[in-house]
Structure formats: C-alpha cells, structure tokens
Amino acid sequence: MDIKEYFARISYQGSHNKPDLATMSDIFQHHIRAIPYENLSIHCGERIELDLEPIYNKIVRKKRGGWCMENNYLLFWVLKTLGYDITLLGAKVYVPERDAYPEDINHLLLRVDLDGKSYIMDAGFGMAYQMWQPMELISGTDQPQTPGVFRFQEENGIWYFEKVRRKQWVLNPSTSTSPNVENEVCRRVYLFTLQPRDIEEFRGCNAHLQTAPNSKFVLKSMCSMQTADGIRELVGWKLTEIKYNYRDNMDLVEIRMLAEEELEKTLREKFSLTLDKKFLPVDNKLF
Known about the structure:
The chain is of the alpha+beta class. Helices cover 23% and strands 29% of the residues.
C-alpha cells in the first residue's frame, strides 16, 4: 500500500508534511468527492472484506467505492500513516422506520485528537447525511456545512449525531416515495460513545449486514457521490440529484427512474464506477 497512490486516487496534490486540521480537512473533502459510498458488491455477488489490503485494492486500485467500514478504515490508515492521533469508534445508526437504534454497533467512524481538541470524521455515511468537514466533538453547538447544519448532543456519555436539513424543492415530486420529503427538518443520524474500538469488533456486523435478509444493505442497492455543490445517489433504479442551498435556504432535488439499459452508463458517468460483475439493482421496502 502506497500513500501516494491513494493521493492520486482522490486527486489530492496538497501538502501532507504537517498533521494539522487544514490538511486533514482537505484530504477528507477530496476523499468523499472521489470515492463513492456504495454497497454494490453485495448485488454483484462479491463479498465485502474487512482487511485493509483488500479494501485498499478495491478502492484505490480498482477505483471502486465502499460502505462505512471500508471507507473509514482506509481513511484511518491514511491519517495514521500521516501521523495523526486517530481512534476507531462504533455507532448505532438510527432507524426511522422503527424510531429506534439497534442493540449492537453497526457503523464505524473516526475520532482524531489534534491540538487539544477532538474531531469526529466519517467518510462512510454517504447519501444526504454525509458530513463534508471534520466536526469538533462538542455538545449542543450547531456546525453549519454546505449540506446543512450538523450537531452533536451528549447525554450521559452517549453522543447523538443530528442533521438539520433545509426545505427541499422537488422538481418531479410524483417520483418521490417519501411523503415527508419537504417537511422534515431535524433528523437523528446515529449515536456513539467514545469507547475506543478495534477493527475486529466490526467483523460480526460486516458479515451480518451483507447477508441478513432484513438488512437494509441486502434489501437496497445504494451508491452515492458527493459533488462540488450537492450529491448524487442511486438507490435501486432511482437516481436522485441534489443541489444544496439552490436558493432561499432550499435544496433543489431532481429524481428520475432509470431504465435497465441506463444503469451501467450512469454508474460510469455519474459515479466513476465500472463493475467487474453483473449488477442486479434492488429497492425493496424496509421492514
């Protein structure tokens, strides 16, 4: 594995001699704009590995994307290699359909301690809830970013990650399956503690999430890419493109259903992805 090869993958040409906040933020933003959040391996008959070498080969050399454990474990290696004080953390992702959190951790994120402050980095949540910059680990303070306002709320050692989303102007609302898409304001994303984790603690959920019949990742094929001013996401055959803060504190949303013959071209042109095996999209109802 070669850090320069990773930098070429994300088109990063900045300095990396000093492990400071500016460098970390720049690398992070290049990462999320170059590497898709995706679970397409599950729907191509491939197994998602949790060892660093296969993750590196998949994302850096084969120019694929990955889900949280792949993206954030790779970023963990990158920042550790550059000299950052970095720790793995585990989170439980909020399930809006059940208004609940799972019993066990099912998401990997990163904590970086730098110049007397702590920051949370998460390059692997994807979709419209992806942070665009490292977030200072501080409770109750709004941290505005291009995608919206993010914040942490701490209660008895448990940290809650939330996003306040703008109103959305949906150009073609008839294709939207969410009746509350324009009204939702604040959304819980996940909860976590500051207990340091080892990658071995994620092997169980890595296996479960790609095989369990009721897993969101089995029920839906997903791919998302952060752009200069918004996000693209493909769930099943539904392509959504969002332009953040298009006007009057409102996001512009365009949704289109793709035909089968459009999928390969869309993945290549919109997400810079070329798959080795046949992709079978799915978009089943959760729970």
